[in-house]
Design goal:
The chain has 16 helices and 3 strands. It has a 3-stranded antiparallel β-sheet. Helix 9 packs across helix 10. This is Type IV pilin biogenesis protein. Keywords: Cell inner membrane, Cell membrane, Membrane, Transmembrane, Transmembrane helix, Transport.
């Protein structure tokens, strides 16, 4: 498959009017042919750089919310896309929206048009847009999609903010420790060797650790780099991803964040599909398609098979062990009362708020622990270095 490139063009109409724009195409010749088909004489054409960072969910979330607003105002989908393209400061998004509008004018479905741009639109978007097309509620699906993406972005921002301070402090502490081990401790060791007296056990242990780091430090760095390379190679391996997810879910803080985020995502998609009138099994399949983690895909796929065999929804979810008793109770109540969509909405809101609360408290939980660990490490090094000096008088009297 040929890779599309971003081109900025300028051309003249038959009336001598200058027009310009940007477009995605596979080659310079293809762009010139497209301009000729539009009865434009090319006078300038250059290739533009593409920034992969602009494909992030932040830009896409703004686009989908603005598109939902335009649809609510009564504009057609192609007109809304063309209008958004004119307002985009980023050339690659401007060309992308123009391309989508042209595809829709040719009769291509919106979800199929988005599917051609996986770098900009993740599977969740395709599933939501497809749901909106099937139910005729594209506007509502776009609004809910934008809201769900904004919630995920806020959660990710809170986690990054909570982890930024500990990472900086630990990095500085590690730098201080390495400086003390590699430069300060050897100087103290040379001084200690002039005394004919045994060193305290703590000092001997720290000096042995310093000697080990000096002798095998490069090997440790090499092993760390090798481990990073291996983990990078395994990031697309299904078995490893499932095992890693199980480990992370067992961690005290990370497990709560990950489980809450995934459950909030799953229940949001299920609530949206139920509200749109889609069968629960189809909604469960759509929710699985929007998840990138193989472990959670397996959980929903197994639940789908159990429900197909006639097992109640709450019991099928219970067998996975990843859904809390509250989830099972509300889903069971929703099945009996016929208000499953309402219960799913409540569960999505509950897990979203709970996860946001855990993220808010993350920094409060980490800072005291960080101070204790850092203080214990640096304090141990300082005491180990100065403990022999406290016995300096005894050592000097022994020399005399």
């Amino acid at each position: 498959m040929k890779i599309r490139q971003l081109w900025q063009w300028r051309g003249l109409t038959h009336e001598g009017e200058i027009r310009q724009g940007v477009r995605w195409d596979i080659s310079r010749a293809a762009v010139l042919l497209a301009l000729q088909q539009q009865h434009l004489t090319p006078i300038g054409l250059k290739r533009c750089a593409v920034r992969s960072s602009l494909w992030g969910s932040g830009h896409g979330c703004d686009v989908i919310r603005q598109l939902a607003t335009l649809l609510h105002a009564g504009l057609t989908l192609p007109d809304g896309l063309h209008l958004l393209a004119q307002q985009q400061p980023a050339k690659q998004w401007q060309a992308l929206l123009e391309s989508l509008g042209q595809e829709l004018e040719k009769g291509v479905a919106f979800s199929l048009a988005l599917k051609q741009w996986p770098e900009a639109f993740p599977p969740l978007w395709l599933s939501m847009i497809r749901t909106g097309e099937l139910t005729g509620q594209l506007e509502q699906c776009c609004f809910h999609l934008a809201e769900q993406q904004e919630n995920q972005q806020r959660l990710a921002a809170k986690v990054r903010k909570a982890l930024r301070y500990p990472i900086i402090i630990l990095s500085l502490a590690l730098a201080v420790i390495m400086a003390m081990v590699c430069w300060v401790l050897p100087e103290f060791a040379a001084i200690y060797q002039t005394f004919n007296t045994p060193l305290p056990a703590l000092t001997r242990g720290v000096m042995a650790f310093a000697g080990f780091i000096q002798q095998w430090g490069w090997c440790l760095v090499g092993v760390t780099l090798l481990l990073i390379i291996v983990l990078n190679r395994l990031r697309h391996h299904t078995g490893w991803l499932m095992l890693r997810q199980k480990w992370l879910l067992k961690c005290p803080i990370a497990g709560s964040l990950i489980r809450g985020q995934k459950l909030s995502h799953i229940f949001s998609v299920l609530a949206l599909t139920q509200r749109a009138g889609i069968a629960f099994l189809q909604g469960l399949q759509n929710a699985g398609e929007t998840l990138e983690c193989p472990y959670w895909q397996h959980v929903l796929r197994q639940a789908h098979q159990d429900i197909t065999q006639g097992i109640p929804i709450w019991q099928a979810l219970k067998s996975s062990g990843e859904f809390s008793p509250l989830c099972l109770q509300l889903i069971r109540t929703g099945e009996v009362s016929g208000a499953l969509d309402t219960m799913l909405e409540n569960l999505a809101r509950h897990h979203s708020e709970k996860t946001q609360m855990v993220a808010d408290n993350l920094a409060t939980l980490l800072e005291p622990l960080l101070l204790i660990v850092t203080g214990a490490i640096i304090g141990t090094l300082v005491v180990a270095m100065y403990l022999p000096i406290f016995h300096l008088g005894d050592a000097m009297s022994g020399m005399g």
